[in-house]
């Protein structure tokens, strides 16, 4: 996760990890790694949601000098 | 052609029919190059040539109208007698029938009907271009990070939309691009707003919104330029124009049509509490999966214990243990041997001290006896007392000497002990030294004379050992290259 992941990517990956683990054909070693990754993503999502504060920017499109 | 000599003056300018026809046509065409005439259709006739002929009339008058075949395709409706229409074109005069007529390039129904038909015409045109096709509709990202709202700068619409965002999804960043959504400026303002949104990165969705109004007030959203701006948007568009009942052309070309501006904001965003629950639920599932897999790990351990890998492992451990015992055994032997040596060293020293002490005392006694013998003849009383004094002094000196000597020896022994500790054999081996024993490891070989050519001996390294046989022997200094 070098690049900053979007919220959608993070939650999508979390869903994917849970799906994969629930399917049950993940080798044990990988499952621990997936578990850790999933928990990290979940916490990241919670943090974004808990700290949310709507930002609003206003731009004008004056039709100038036409 | 003219004979002016026998005709009155008023006949000076005589036109032929063709001349006057041409003149009339020229005048009419330059006077009325483009006019729109409103009237009711009468005498409608579609000619086999493809041209349409009819008359436009009002209460008193009537004018002929022709629509040439090449313009018929532009019509948004089928003209019929009795329809009130607006015909646009050029006034001309046709000599063949001697009639003045309107060469119409477009005819539209007048009034609201016209708006309705214009709406259908544009919609049909965009449909034919495929701009309303379901497969063109884009997915709206479920968790938008950046939302562009194109609407008027102030008023209820933007307020309602922002309220909805705050309530539902404050995670987002909102860019409100102010635009005219009504009146003559709107047709340029809205496409311009879209152009500026197209240039922005990371926009998940655009909302184009306007509050309710009359069909005329909402007409902006039935204009081709506006519809094309929506259809050509780089980012997905949700339209929320007017009320539930209002549908405009842009609603057909946008990705999602919402009934109202607030509905558009709701479609664009999830409810934050739902998303929190969703995340928590998944983390909970992850936790229980992890617990389950911990149980699984115990099973794995049991499996390993029963599997073939395990005895092999045990065997290796056993061997390592044996080796360790071997080492410890040797070490113990070495230690015992050296310990007695150390103890002996101590005993030797104390024995020597004792002996020298004895000698000293004996010497002193004999000297004293001699002296007593020598002086008894002279002044025995005085001599004895002075001799006693010197004996005392000597004894004191002797005690000090002995104590010092003992201290010194003790220190020496301690130092040696410490050096021996430093030479703890495994430490030495770790530094790269080796030692040799008989092949059974019981006796350490310390000198070259203990071995002969062809003998076997075990060489012990820090990390293992080797069974070697002696090829050659040499006396003197350790082996060196020549």
Summary, kept brief:
The complex is a heterodimer of chains A (66) and B (482). Chain A has 66 residues and is mainly alpha-helical.
Beta-strand proportion of chain B: 15-25%
Mean pLDDT of chain B: 81
Largest sheet of chain A, if any? none
State the secondary-structure class of chain A. Answer: mainly alpha
Proportion of residues in extended strands of chain A: 5-15%
Unreliable spans of chain B? none
How many H/I helices of chain B?
12
Radius of gyration of chain A: 19 Å
> How many β strands of chain B by DSSP?
14
Secondary-structure map:
The complex is a heterodimer of chains A (66) and B (482).
Chain A (H helix, E strand, L loop, with lengths): L6 H17 L4 H23 L4 E6 L6
Chain B lengths: L16 H15 L3 E12 L5 E6 L4 E6 L1 H4 L11 E11 L4 E11 L2 H17 L17 E6 L4 H13 L4 E6 L7 H13 L6 E6 L13 H8 L5 E5 L7 H5 L2 E3 L2 H8 L3 H35 L2 H68 L3 H43 L2 H6 L4 E3 L6 E2 L10 E6 L2 E6 L13
């Amino acid at each position: 996760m070098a690049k900053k992941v979007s919220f959608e990517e993070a939650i999508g990956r979390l869903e994917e990890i849970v799906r994969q683990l629930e399917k049950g054909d993940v080798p044990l070693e990988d499952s621990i790694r997936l578990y850790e990754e999933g928990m990290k993503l979940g916490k990241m999502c919670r943090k974004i949601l808990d700290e949310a504060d709507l930002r609003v920017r206003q731009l004008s499109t004056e039709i100038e000098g036409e | 052609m003219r004979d002016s000599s026998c005709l009155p003056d008023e006949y000076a300018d005589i036109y032929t029919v063709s001349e006057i026809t041409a003149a009339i046509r020229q005048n009419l065409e330059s006077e009325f190059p483009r006019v729109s005439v409103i009237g009711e259709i009468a005498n409608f006739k579609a000619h086999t040539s493809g041209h349409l002929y009819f008359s436009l009339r009002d209460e008193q008058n009537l004018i002929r109208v022709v629509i040439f075949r090449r313009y018929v395709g532009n019509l948004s409706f089928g003209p019929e007698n009795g329809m009130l229409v607006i015909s646009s074109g050029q006034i001309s005069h046709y000599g063949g029938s001697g009639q003045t007529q309107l060469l119409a390039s477009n005819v539209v129904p007048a009034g609201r009907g016209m708006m309705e038909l214009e709406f259908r015409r544009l919609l049909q045109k965009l449909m034919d271009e495929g701009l309303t096709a379901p497969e063109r509709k884009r997915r709206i990202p479920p968790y938008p990070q950046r939302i562009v709202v194109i609407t008027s700068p102030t008023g209820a619409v933007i307020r309602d939309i922002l309220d909805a965002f705050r309530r539902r999804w404050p995670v987002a960043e909102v860019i409100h691009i102010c635009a005219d959504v009504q009146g003559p400026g709107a047709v340029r303002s809205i496409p311009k707003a879209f152009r500026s949104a197209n240039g922005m990165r990371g926009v998940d969705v655009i909302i184009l919104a306007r509050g309710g109004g009359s069909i005329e007030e909402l007409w902006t959203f039935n204009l081709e330029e506006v519809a094309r701006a929506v259809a050509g948007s780089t980012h997905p568009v949700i339209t929320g124009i007017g009320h539930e009942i209002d549908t405009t052309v842009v609603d057909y070309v946008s990705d999602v049509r919402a009934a109202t501006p607030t509905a558009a904001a709701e479609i664009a965003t999830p409810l934050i509490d739902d998303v929190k629950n969703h995340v928590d639920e998944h983390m909970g599932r992850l936790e229980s999966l992890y617990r389950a897999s911990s149980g699984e790990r115990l099973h794995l351990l049991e499996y390993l214990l029963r599997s073939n890998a395990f005895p092999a492992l045990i065997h290796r451990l056993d061997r390592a243990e044996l080796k360790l015992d071997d080492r410890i055994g040797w070490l113990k032997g070495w230690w015992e041997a050296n310990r007695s040596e150390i103890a002996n060293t101590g005993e030797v020293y104390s024995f020597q001290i004792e002996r020298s002490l004895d000698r000293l005392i004996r010497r002193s006694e004999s000297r004293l006896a001699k002296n007593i013998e020598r002086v008894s003849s002279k002044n025995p009383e005085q001599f004895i007392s002075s001799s006693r004094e010197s004996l005392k002094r000597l004894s004191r000196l002797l005690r000090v000497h002995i104590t010092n000597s003992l201290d010194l020896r003790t220190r020496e022994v301690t130092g040696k002990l410490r050096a021996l500790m430093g030479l703890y054999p495994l430490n030495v081996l770790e530094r790269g030294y080796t030692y040799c024993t008989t092949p059974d490891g019981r006796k350490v070989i310390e000198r070259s004379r203990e071995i002969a050519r062809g003998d076997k001996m075990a060489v012990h390294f820090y990390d293992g050992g080797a069974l070697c046989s002696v090829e050659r022997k040499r006396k003197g200094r350790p082996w060196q290259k020549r």
